[in-house]
Structures are given as C-alpha cells and as structure tokens.
Task: structure prediction
Amino acid sequence: MTTIATDIFTVRPYTSHCRVIEQEAQHAVIGVSPGNSFFTAETVTGLAHWAAERFARVDLVYTDLYIADMYEALGYSPDDARRKAVKNLRGVRAKVSNAALAVDPDGARVRAQPVSALTGRPEYRRLSRHVETLMTDDAALAATVAGLVDRFLRDKVTGRDATDRQREVCTRYILAELPLFIDSPAIFGVASSLNCYHQVLPLADLLYGPGHGLRASRNQGHGIIALTAPEDAQ
Result:
C-alpha cells in the first residue's frame, strides 16, 4: 500500500481559540466515517502519520453504532442490513487499525478504536446524558439536530417522507458522536484536544458560538483537514 505524503495535509482551526488548541498539540481525534469514500486506506494511514508528527497523542475513532439499524430503517431486511453493516465496519476497522499499527506499532501514542469502545467511560456517559437532557430543554440543539436528520434522509428517501423510525435511528447516530465533539479531553484524559475531520462538524456553529446551551468545552477544539494536490502543497 502506498502512503500519502503528510505534507499534503493541512488543517484549518475553526476558531481562533481552536488554533490555540492546535498549537498546544496535546491530542488529536481523527474521525473516520464508515462508507465515506474520502477515507481510503492510503488517506487514513497518511492522516495517522500526519497527526503523529504534530500531536503528542492521537486517537483514530470510527463510528460503529446504529449502522445496521440505519440500513434496516432505510429499507434493507434485518439480515441484509446486518450483513451490510458487518462488511462496512470490517473495512473501516481494518483501515484504522492498520494505520495505527503502521505509525505506532506499540500503541503508545496512536490508538485506533470504535465509538462503542468509549461508551463505557464515565465521561462519555455523563456527556451523553447531558446531550439527552438538552435535546428536551434546548430548542436550538433540537432544531439543529432535526435539520441534520432532514438533510441526511432527504437524499436517502427521495420521493417519500421519512418515517418516524428513520428519523429516530438517524438522530441516535448523530447523538452517539456528540460527546466527542463536546469534550474529548475529558473522554481521553488529556489537557486539550483537537477534533479533526475533513468537513466542518455539522454542529460547529452551535458548539463554538456565543450563548448558553450545548457548547464545546474550553479545552476542546475543531480543525478541518484538507487534502491538497501535490503541486498545491509545494
């Protein structure tokens, strides 16, 4: 497998405070989405190398919750949904695990793990409960999540309205990732952390905006990773 050169990755901190988090370089979370064509094996390994060169610790995290439920809600039979989820997750697990192993064979600084491995941690559970409460009490959060669900399902159920089941599962999928966007330093036990993704996080405006409600912690940052063409990186 050919590894992408790390000098073609760039990161754009979402706010000036996120830039401070980036410069502290204590920890990075690299989010890897299953089924997303951006995350080829070469790209994931390149990202792992890039992050390890810049941060003291790196966690490569992929979503593995509600995948089969999503497929079933979108019309697959239970057996087909399960098989498709298993195949999908097997692929992303291999990419992430191989990337971490290639960069840090001892696992001292670079780790690979699914979101499900984090759900037993007290801080993840605390943040999940906080989000659940705010989904009832915070109209801005509920509206933002509903908008994300609408946008996702619009491309999946063309020509008909989304069902309550589809909306419920899609909401669960989004909320399962939220603790990592809010306070990954608490979850991973680090002083500060930059959550990196190849797009702006869907709730970034809410998490890093002024006011009350759901907000990222003071030592949480967000960075948008760009993959430039080799000639652009020169």
Residues 78-103 form the longest helix (26 residues). Residues 6-227 form a domain with the Rossmann fold fold (CATH 3.40.50.11710).
